Amino acid sequence: MTIKTNPEQLDMLKSQMDEANQKSHFIIFESTEFSSGDNLRLITDYESFKSIRKAHADQAKMHILQDIVPITDNLAKWAIAESKAAHQNDDPEALADLERYTNAVLKENYIQVNQE
Which domain of life is it from (predicted)? Predict the structure, then answer.
């Protein structure tokens, strides 16, 4: 399943994201687990990153790879997928969409994608 939106919906969402971006901008960060060495690149806003890093300081090293992420169609679709995955966290399609659009944002920002 892919995110289904029309251009008007995407434009409206991007406008809302642009407003939110003024308060706490979007970033891409990498998390490396201490125990396994596995790493994952993720997208969030800066304030959430600080909270996540503090909450998991004993489990993983986290650092910012890109400190301002442009608001694009892929980032808007990522936001939709992220919201769906948060509300339907046991739905494999929602999780697959989140992975797909996370990787799309990583790719358009010239950052290595996560393994699929």
Answer: Bacteria
Report the C-alpha gap between 69 and 107 in whole angstroms: 12
Global pTM reads 0.88
Distance CA(101)–CA(81), nearest Å, equals 7
> Element (H or E) spanning 67, and its range?
none
CA–CA gap between residue 47 and residue 111 (Å, rounded): 21
Q: pLDDT-based confidence at 116, cuts 50/70/90? A: low
Confidence of residue 36 (pLDDT cuts 50, 70, 90): very high
Joined together, the tokens standing for residue 105 give 């944002």
* Amino acid at residue number 44: T
Q: Which two tokens stand for residue 42?
A: 């993720």
- How does 50-70 read in b/e, with b if 16+ C-beta sit within 10 Å? eebbeeeeeebebeeebeebe
Nearest of 73, 65, 78, 71 to residue 22 by alpha carbon: 71
Task: Tell me the sheet residues that pair with 39.
Answer: 32
